[in-house]
Structure formats: C-alpha cells, structure tokens
Design goal:
The structure holds two protein chains of two kinds.
Chain A (H helix, E strand, L loop, with lengths): L13 H7 L21 E3 L4 E12 L6 H14 L11 E2 L5 E8 L14 E5 L7 E5 L2 H13 L1 E2 L4 E4 L1 E5 L5 E7 L7 H13 L4 E7 L12 H7 L9 H13 L3 E8 L14 E2 L24 E2 L5 H16 L4 E5 L5 H5 L2 H8 L4 H18 L3 E5 L1 H4 L15 E5 L3 H10 L3 E4 L2 H4 L36 H6 L8 H4 L2 E8 L9 H5 L2 H10 L11 H17 L10 H5 L13
Chain B lengths: L11 H7 L21 E3 L4 E12 L6 H14 L11 E2 L5 E8 L14 E5 L6 E5 L2 H13 L1 E2 L4 E4 L1 E5 L5 E7 L7 H13 L4 E7 L12 H7 L9 H13 L3 E8 L14 E2 L24 E2 L4 H17 L4 E5 L5 H5 L2 H8 L4 H18 L3 E5 L1 H4 L15 E5 L3 H10 L3 E4 L42 H6 L8 H4 L2 E8 L9 H5 L2 H10 L11 H17 L10 H5 L9
Parallel strand pairs in B: 2-3, 2-4, 4-6, 10-11, 10-19, 11-12, 12-15, 15-16, 16-17, 17-18, 18-19
Antiparallel strand pairs in B: 1-9, 2-8, 5-6, 5-9, 7-8, 13-14
Chain lengths: 583, 576
C-alpha cells in the first residue's frame, strides 16, 4: 500500500491538547456508540458521553459565500433532524450544561474549491457545554467536512451530541467522486441535487457528470443550441444553462466539484441529429449480422463518432468546449476519448481516402487530440481522458501529444494493471476500475432479441450476461486498494477514484439505490482507508457502521438500499460468516 | 402448454361487425398495446376517438366492482398518459365515446382460486357504447384495466374499432414478498397490490413472518409481535391487514398469508423461548461443516414439534391468521427444516435415541397442524421441501392432494415434475428463474470472498442464486417445461419472489417491476407468438412502454434499456 500521506498535520489547539494529551492512543479500533461515516482518521473519545444541544445552539463562522450557507443548513439540520439511531447509543447524558456554540475558525478563507484543496479539519466537543465546541480547518471546504462530522454526532429528541471527543481528519485521496451518465437515460435536476447532497454527506467531493453520449445530448449550449434541440430526448429532458448553474452553485454550497464530461470523438451519435455532416456512421445498426465483433460500429447500440477530418467539427467542438468551460468553472474538464471503434470511421469516404494514403486511424485520433486539447488547456483546464486514448490496442495517440502536466487519465479496464500502466507512463490517474467501481454491473444485458435468456432450463446461466458481471457488492468496492501493486512514488500519481453509474438500465427510479450505500463504501476507503490500525481490512467491522449510516441516509431522504436484514444490526456479529472463503 | 379455453362465446353483435375478417392472434405491432398482451386483440384499422368529457362507466352494483369502476373512471378521465412514442393513430371525427357498459353474468362469484377472469371488450369506432362483458366481477376488473391502457393523451382519446377477448393461461399468478427480513410499510403493500392489478396478477403471497421478525399482531398471541417485531412502528395490526385485504378485493388481488413453520421461526422465541429449538444461536459455527449448520442463513430457530405448548401457540396463530385473511389458500411454509437445529434440543435427542427420526418429528408436526388448518376450510400450501427435502420430509400419505398444494423453488422443472408426478398441484417459484433478489451478492458479514486479490475471478458474485434474473429470463421460462398435458394441468401458475435480506421500501418497486410484469404476460397469454416462437424480442418495446406507464402511475419500475432504444425500434437488438 502506498497511501498518499499528507504533509499537513493539523495543529491541535492548545485547549484540546490540554484536554487530551494524557492518553492519546493510535487510531482506535474501539467500537464507539455513535459513529461518523466515513470513519475519521483520528477519533479520540476516551469516555463516551453525550450532552444536550441547547435550543439556542449556534454555529459561528467567518463569513464566506458558501460556508455561511452550509453553516446555516447544518444549524437547521442539527436542531431539527432528531435522528433516532436504529439502536439507541448506550451513552450517558451528562448533567453538564448544554452545548451552546460551535466555533469555526478558518486559516485561509480564500482557497477555492479545486482539486487538492485542503479538506482537513479538527473538531473538539468538550464534555461540558460551558466550553464551546471548536472546529478548525484550513479552508472553508475542510470546515464543511467538519460540519458534516458534527451533524452525524447529533441525534435524538431533544437533540443531543456526543461529547468529550476530539477528531482530527484528513482524506487519503484528494479525488473522490461519482460518475453519473445522463445520456442513456435522463435524470431531472432534482435528482442531481439530491445526488450532490448525498455526495457531500459521504465526504465525496466530485460529481463527474457524463452529460452526453450517443443516445442523447441533453445539455443546452448557448453557442450550439441545435445539439440539445435535436439531440435531447425531449423538451422536458434537457439541462438549461440555469439548471447547470443551479447544480454548480449547489455543489459549491456542499463542497462538491462538478466536473463535466462531453465525451468525444466517439460516443457522439446524438450530435448527428443537429450536425449529420460531422459524425461518421451515425444511426447505423451497431453490430450487423454476419459481422465480426471487430467490425462492429459501436460497442453497444447507438453509433456515431466525430469525423476529425471534417473541418466543420472543430467549429462545433470549440463552441461546445467554450460553452461548457464557461458553464462549469471547475479546473478539470473531462473530454472522454474512450472506445473509438475502427469501423465507424472506416465507413466514411474521407477517412477511407486518408487511410488509402497510408494514414492510420491513430493518426486521425492524434489530429483530433492535437486540434482540441490545446484549446481546452488554453481555457485553463486540466483535461481528463479515459485511459483508452493512451492504452487502446488499436486507436490511440502518442504520449508525446498528451503532456502529463495538462492531462489526467481515468482508468476503467483491467483493474490494477491499467492503473500501473498509466502511472508508469507518468500520468496522474483517477481509478474507476469496472471490476470494482462500476455500479451498473450485474443486471444482465440490455440488448433486445437476446437469445441467451431463452436457453433450455438447466443451461448454465453463467455470469448473467452483463459485460462487467457480477454486481459489485459494497464489500467489493470497500476492499479495493486503488494503489494495489504500485510503489510509493507511483501511488502519488493516483489522485483517487470514482464509482460510475452508467445508465443503460438506470434512471431516477433506481439512482439512489444503485449508488448508495455502495458509493459510501468507496467514500470511506478513499477517505480514511479500508484497514484498521493493525493493517487488517476492516470490512467486517464496517458492516454495522454502514448499516447505521445507510439508515441515516434513508431518513435524510436518500433511498439507499439495505445491505442486510435489520435483524443483523440488532444481533451484532450474528450475521457474520466465520468460514474461510474457498474459491 | 395447457391453454385454457375461454368458456364464453362472442356476442352475436360483434360477430356481425367483425366476422368478415377475423385473423389468428395477430403478430401485428399495434400503435398502442395492453400489458399483458391479450389472448385475442383484433384491431383491423387502428384508430382512436375522443373520450367524452362526461364519459361514464355503467356496471352492476357490487361491493368491490363499484369502487373499481369509480377508480377507473377517474383514471381514464385524468391520467392523460403520453406514450413515449406517440401512437400513429388517426383521431376519428366520429362522436366521442360517452359510455362503457359492463355486463357481468354472475356477480356472486367470490374472488378465489380458479375464478373466471375472462372478459371481452369492444370499443366501436362510431362512438356507440363500448361494451365489456365478463362472467364475474373479477373478469370485469381485468377488462377495466385493459380499457384504461387503451386510453391516452390529453384530451383523453381511446383506441377504437377493436375487439379483445381475453383469458389467462394460468389461474395463479402471484408475487411473494418477505416482510420479515426487512419491514415494509402498509403503503408499500398497497402500492404493490395496485401494481399487481395493473399487470393482471391476482395473488399477493405475503410471507409475513420468519426467524428475523414477527410483524403481524395477532389478537390471541399478541406477545409474538410485541416481542418479535422489529419495533413499535414496524408491525401490522389487524386494521392494517384488513386494509390490505380489502384493498386487494377492490383490485381483484387475493392476499394469501404465509406463517412459515416449523423452521424459520426464530422470532417466535422472543415471546416463547420454550417452544423454539436452537434460537439465537450462531447460524454456522466455525469448524463445523455445512450439514452441521443451525440454519441456512443467519437467524436460527425451529418450532419444537415434541413440545405440547407449540401446538397451543400454533393453533392460536393459525386461527387468528385464518380469521384475518379470508382467502381459501393458507401457506404454512415448511421449508428448510435444518437437522442440527432440532438435534441440539434435549427432548429431540431423547426421541432420536429411541430410534425416532427427524422426518418422524416433522410428521408429528404436520399431522397435528395440517388437519386443523384444513378444518378451517383452507387449502394448505407448503414449500416443496415437505415432500422433497433430502433429509427431513413427510410421507405423501400425510399430505392429501385435495388439501395440499406444493410450491416449488429448487431444481427448476425437475422438481415441478416430481411434484406433479406425485399427484400434487404446484405453484412454480423456481429460484433459477423467479427469484427477484438474486444477483446482489451475499449479505453475510465478514465475508472474505469480497477481499480477494485483484484479478481473482469474481464468478457470479456469490449470491446463492446468482446471477440476477433478467426480465427475459423470467419471461422465457415455461413453467410446464417437460410436462405432458395431464401433468401440466396440475401447474396452477407461478409466483416471482422477493426475499428481503437486501430489500425493503427503498428498492421494492424496482426489484419487482417490470420483471414481475414479464411473468405476468407469460402466465396470462404466454411467451410465444402464434407461430410458437418466443416473443421476447417483440415484447421488448411493449415492455419499455408499459414500464414507462407504470412509472407515471407511481410505480418505480426500473428501466430495461436506454430511452433511445424505444425511439429507435430494433436498433438495440442483437442479431448474433
């Protein structure tokens, strides 16, 4: 393991030092009566107790456009949530005066929400309300993480709060995100806001919005309005500039970055509705009868790739990039680059001519990248591409045109092997291994007319027909070490990870339950790790905590799916297996 | 296949209108469809007419049909459903449709197994009254559902110039929901019943209790729920049950209760520890082999058939449940009796030491309880285990086929065949095809299976019944596979099952729908077209539309494809 070690040890305040310096153990494996998800790095609570939250409880914080909104929100929440844990925490309510204040101090109020921003914080809740609780952080964004922690320590009616504790917390990985595909099926803005809210509850910090694909183009762009007008699924299935602004601003108030992805040059069939001349193989049947897999037009139904040899595409692409960069302030811009299918380009006459003069498909992609990447970086963006642009066996570009200082690669194939190949090439990497982090797997195939489900009874159903079978359980996600097999130096290039919900078989109806609590599992693994202080995987210990946390998310309006019968929580340990797994 | 023929004849009226050109069941793709696809849908010139603003439905007065009529009237006037693909139907300039007239031959038939659900529906193109004819009010409800699915748009239009004659292939078409592993609010159960009725399913098999919780409050045994429910807010009171049962009647859905016993009863031990063996023990101790487990999953406990007190409690339970649930079927469980759970009990050890067997102990239990249940005019449904379990089972002589139905869940068609060959009627819930919970991994804690080095094959994900059963898997299963015609007659129908280890309110709708819709069509009008070819490909677009309509009706059915596929018919198919 090569966890990214942060150089920033938050200085304990003099007061907390005085209170706690007598007996500071290592990260404790003790089971606390109330827990925070993701588990904080350091949680000292030598004598678990609780005190009342005063009805006049207030949070004081330096004014900050987004932190102030967040502090107000958390103030309302702690006073009105009245969460009743499934199992009443065995905590003595001390007769000490109720807690009146949480005082937030910030070292640097101006740090913007960007990749690598300091999210650390320290929280002290004294055992008597005659002393203030204090939350200190370097940045407003770290303070938001601390506020979330504080909110999870408040429960019951009247509101009471865990007391006599000190938490010092800092994430292992800077990039902790969720990909949602809003092209295969549409999600209304309310769903996206609820997603951002839940992302923030789990101390995740990136919503990677895979906005467009071959199936629909829901984003209304001021310079290219035709793309959505003709490419969206319908009038009511679009994201306007106002919608985007709402999501972005909401994200800021929750400390969640919104990274847009406009996938190209492949996955662009929907562009052809407005601009048929710039898209090759649009609206063709994806995998004709008698054709080999190598001769498919797309890896799934929905064909179409931008034609890098058509000058017109660069007008459209630049308009798109400019508008998207304007609408999404984040310094990351995801430009796709995955799954370029040879035959989709090869059916185009201009491409055929190019190839007949000894040109290659990879050269065509290089043209595209060379004509678009500098433009995106000129807008002060770091560009994220899917790994394919470097690792695809057939169509890829030379690393020389992908400057590692401007380019980050997101891996999705072959687990740790491709992570290693990406970092070994000198690139920073975001891990979305489909073997571990794809939330859509395990629901079978979505193709029509698929005879594999019409076999005689007794036929081995195999893995069920989903290309990335099986379903990734929360434990599968929790246990994955995204720096597996890397040296310490290599590990430093691993920025973090993203679970991904591709939407062939998902939309509003299942968004919450497909994502949560499995994304929470990644949330903890990337925040404080998946091991206890002895280095042992802590998935067994995490189960009950995750049950409670899932329940709290549900009561907060996030329809997270259950992972066990409620009985298991009432009977700790009784739902375990103690048998060794034999494969 | 045992295609049951409709027993009614066409009205001469329609014969005159339509007889000039009656084709076979048509494979034509209609601009608007009904799910499940009707047996006969004759629509030579697809058109639509407006529904009059003062449209009415007339029907004979009936305690349950009347509320159903009122409900459908409101729905057709107010739903204003806009299909994903606008039906290419000419709106006729004929006068709008002002009335649907329902006639019922026998308004007294109760909602029970085998009740006649057939109906015929004619919607003329002239604006003359639409006619719905049925033998029973329950058939009329099915016809009303069909009519409602033919209405769309704003202002409301209705498909016209059509004749539908419809009758289910199988009489028993159900969904099993487990409310013990995790609790579901009553509102969830009502929404389930509502969605079942939309899909012309007719049985909600309510697996109420299990080892994990005992949520039903019984007047004679209130301690069972008081101590065995998950909490004060997680119980079903007598009023709740009445609410569900009455709601079911208004929707033509029978509610069949299951109180699983003698196994799956750990929750009873909270109130009566003395009648439950191996309660609250660790389910599968370290160092012990699988045959020495105490339960097939966490949550141990089996009623002790050798303890007289068991029968006091059981009789109270059966009596109360039979009172609360009027349906003629009573599900008495009897699955997964695990040897070691009984063997740890001293009284059982004594019995065994005198050359008694575990099967004899189960026979004692069945002999003492089955006659009591049947004495309450109930047909008893047991899980197949009572007959087919490898170790603990009873002699068929104790299970009179006239009083007992078996529900199969193991070994696909093989066990179905074993059961019918033994002379029993069977309800099919094969876990290979009909278990909706499969494919989400294992729920046990501390499972090192999910902590293997990257690169280790993940197999089917360690769900015992993995993989996930797709809608096509469910749709294509022929529940009479391998049976001859006589054997097929003993197959009453099927039930998809949602076991709730990893399910509750948050996922109930998408786990069940639209996959239960797939079974609904297969058991109503079959999974083959008129040429005998599987029609799953043709069903895909129809199911997409139907799923979308269910969502707009408040049922959170999960999507089966990108919306793009609906808009580009055939383009999402595979031809390989």
């Amino acid at each position: 393991m090569g966890y990214t070690i942060l150089s920033f040890p938050l200085p304990l305040s003099v007061v907390s030092l005085f209170i706690f310096c007598f007996s500071i153990p290592g990260i404790s494996a003790v089971r606390y009566p109330i827990n925070v998800w993701p588990k904080p790095t350091t949680f000292l609570w030598t004598h678990p107790q609780a005190i009342l939250l005063s009805p006049n409880f207030t949070i004081s914080n330096p004014y900050h456009r987004y932190l102030t909104t967040a502090a107000n929100r958390y103030l309302r929440q702690v006073l009105t949530e009245h969460h009743q844990p499934l199992f009443k925490p065995p905590l003595n309510l001390t007769s000490a005066p109720p807690l009146q204040f949480l005082i937030i101090t910030i070292t640097d109020l101006t740090s913007p929400l960007t990749h690598g921003v300091d999210e650390s914080y320290a929280l002290t809740i004294p055992s008597s309300g005659s002393t203030n609780a204090t939350l200190s952080a370097h940045t407003a964004w770290g303070a938001m993480r601390g506020l979330e922690t504080f909110s999870q320590l408040v429960y019951s009616k009247p509101a009471i709060v865990a007391s006599g504790l000190y938490i010092s917390d800092v994430p292992l990985f800077m990039h902790r995100g969720i990909v949602l595909d809003t092209s295969r099926n549409y999600y209304p803005v309310e769903d996206l806001l609820r997603l951002v809210k839940a992302v923030s509850m789990n101390k995740l910090n990136v919503f990677h919005w895979h906005i467009t694909d071959s199936h629909s183009f829901p984003l209304v762009l001021p310079s290219e309005p035709e793309l959505a007008e003709k490419g969206a699924y319908g009038e009511e299935m679009k994201y306007t500039a106002d919608d985007v602004n709402r999501v972005v601003e909401f994200g800021m108030e929750y400390g969640v970055r919104i990274v847009p992805e406009i996938d190209m040059p492949a996955h662009t069939g929907s562009w052809a509705e407005a601009h048929p001349e710039i898209v090759t193989c649009a609206n063709m049947f994806w995998w004709p009868a008698e054709a080999k897999w190598a001769d498919r037009f797309a890896s799934e139904p929905g064909t179409g790739q931008l034609n890098p040899l058509s000058p017109k595409i660069y007008e459209v692409v630049k308009n798109v990039v400019k508008d998207v960069a304007t609408m999404f302030p984040d310094s990351f811009y995801h430009a796709g680059g995955d799954e370029i299918i040879p035959n989709c380009w090869k059916v185009d006459p201009s491409v055929q001519t190019f190839l007949s003069m000894n040109g290659t498909l990879s050269q065509i992609l290089e043209m595209f990248v060379n004509s678009t990447l500098p433009y995106i970086t000129s807008l002060n963006r770091t560009v994220v591409y899917w790994e394919d642009v470097l690792l695809d066996p057939i169509i890829k570009v030379s690393p020389s045109i992908l400057p590692p200082e401007n380019v980050i690669l997101q891996t999705w194939n072959k687990g740790p092997n491709n992570t290693k190949r990406v970092v070994a090439s000198g690139y920073r990497v975001i891990v979305s291994s489909s073997d571990f982090y794809y939330l859509d797997c395990g629901h079978g195939g979505f193709l029509g007319n698929d005879s594999q489900y019409d076999q005689p009874p007794g036929t081995d159903p195999g893995n069920g027909g989903s290309w990335c079978e099986p379903f990734k359980t929360w434990q599968t996600i929790y246990n994955y070490d995204i720096t597996y097999g890397l040296s310490e130096t290599e590990s430093k290039l691993v920025l973090g990870g993203e679970v991904a919900l591709w939407s062939e078989q998902a939309d509003s109806t299942v968004m919450d339950s497909r994502i949560w609590p499995r994304a929470s599992a990644m949330g903890e693994a990337l925040w404080s790790g998946n091991r206890d202080e002895t280095g042992k995987k802590r998935y067994a210990e995490a189960t009950n905590r995750l049950n409670e946390w899932r329940y709290r998310m549900v009561s907060r309006g996030i329809g997270a799916e259950p992972i066990q019968p409620l009985w298991c929580m009432k009977n700790p340990g009784m739902c375990n297996t103690v048998q060794p797994f034999v494969s | 296949m045992d295609y049951r023929k409709p027993s009614f004849s066409f009205f001469s009226f329609f014969t005159i209108i339509l007889c000039s050109n009656i084709p076979q069941i048509s494979a034509v793709e209609y601009p608007i469809n009904v799910w499940p696809k009707p047996t006969t849908f004759f629509w030579p010139n697809p058109q639509a007419i407006l529904l009059a603003g003062n449209f009415t439905i007339s029907a004979p007065e009936h305690r349950y049909l009347t509320p159903a009529v009122d409900r459908y009237l409101r729905q057709v006037l107010m739903e204003h459903h806009l299909p994903l693909v606008n039906p290419p139907l000419n709106l006729k300039s004929a006068p709008p449709l002002t009335a649907l007239v329902i006639t019922v031959a026998d308004v007294n038939s109760p909602l029970t197994h085998g009740v006649n659900e057939s109906y015929s529906l004619a919607v003329p193109s002239s604006g003359e009254n639409a006619i719905l004819t049925a033998q029973t009010v329950w058939g009329a409800m099915r016809g009303l559902e069909t009519f409602s699915q033919l209405v769309y748009s704003s202002p409301s239009s209705v498909a016209c110039g059509l004749y539908i004659s419809d009758v289910p292939l199988f009489m028993h078409r159900g969904i099993m929901l487990d409310t013990s592993r995790n609790y579901y609010g009553v509102k969830d159960l009502l929404r389930l019943v509502k969605a079942m009725s939309m899909n012309k399913l007719n049985v909600f098999h309510w697996h109420i209790t299990d080892s994990h919780s005992f949520p039903v409050v019984l007047p004679s045994e209130p301690e069972l729920a008081r101590k065995g429910a998950y909490g004060e807010s997680m119980k079903y009171t007598a009023a709740d049950v009445r609410n569900v049962v009455e709601f079911g009647m208004e929707y033509g859905v029978r509610v069949v209760p299951e109180i699983d016993m003698p196994a799956h009863t750990g929750s009873w031990a909270e109130a009566y520890p003395e009648i439950v063996t191996c309660a609250n023990m660790f389910w599968w101790p370290a160092e012990s082999d699988w045959p020495n487990r105490l339960a097939a999953e966490p949550g141990t406990g089996q009623l002790n058939p050798l303890h007289p007190k068991t029968y006091q409690v059981v009789k109270n339970v059966v009596h109360d449940v039979a009172t609360m649930f009027p349906d003629q079927l009573y599900h008495a469980g009897a699955d997964e009796v695990v040897p070691n759970c009984w063997k740890v009990d001293p009284s059982i050890q004594t019995f065994l030491s005198k050359n008694g067997t575990l099967s004899q102990i189960l026979e004692i239990f069945v002999n003492t309880t089955l006659p009591y249940i049947t004495s309450l005019n109930r047909t008893v449904v047991y899980w197949e285990d009572v007959l087919l379990d490898a170790e603990i089972k009873v002699s068929p002589s104790l299970l009179p086929p006239e009083n007992v139905i078996l529900q199969t869940w193991n070994n696909g068609p093989n066990n179905t065949k074993k059961i019918v060959d033994s002379g029993y009627r069977v309800i099919v819930s094969s876990s290979d095809f009909y278990y909706l919970d499969c494919g989400h991994g294992d729920f046990v804690g501390n499972n090192s299976k999910y902590n293997q080095p990257p690169g280790t094959p993940q197999g089917d994900g360690d769900s015992w019944c993995g993989p996930f059963k797709t809608w096509q898997t469910i749709y294509n299963y022929d529940i009479t596979y391998g049976l001859n015609e006589a054997e097929s007659k003993l197959v009453l129908g099927g039930e998809v099952a949602l076991w709730s280890e990893q399910a509750d309110s948050t996922v109930m709708d998408p786990r069940i729908w639209p996959r239960a819709s797939a079974m609904a069509e297969a058991l109503w009008s079959g999974n083959r077209d008129e040429t005998g070819k599987s029609r799953y490909a043709e069903a895909t677009d129809r199911l997409n539309e139907w799923r979308y309509r269910m969502v707009t009706r408040g049922i959170y059915a999960e999507p089966i494809q990108p919306l793009w596929c609906v808009k580009n018919p055939g383009m999402c198919n595979t031809v390989h």
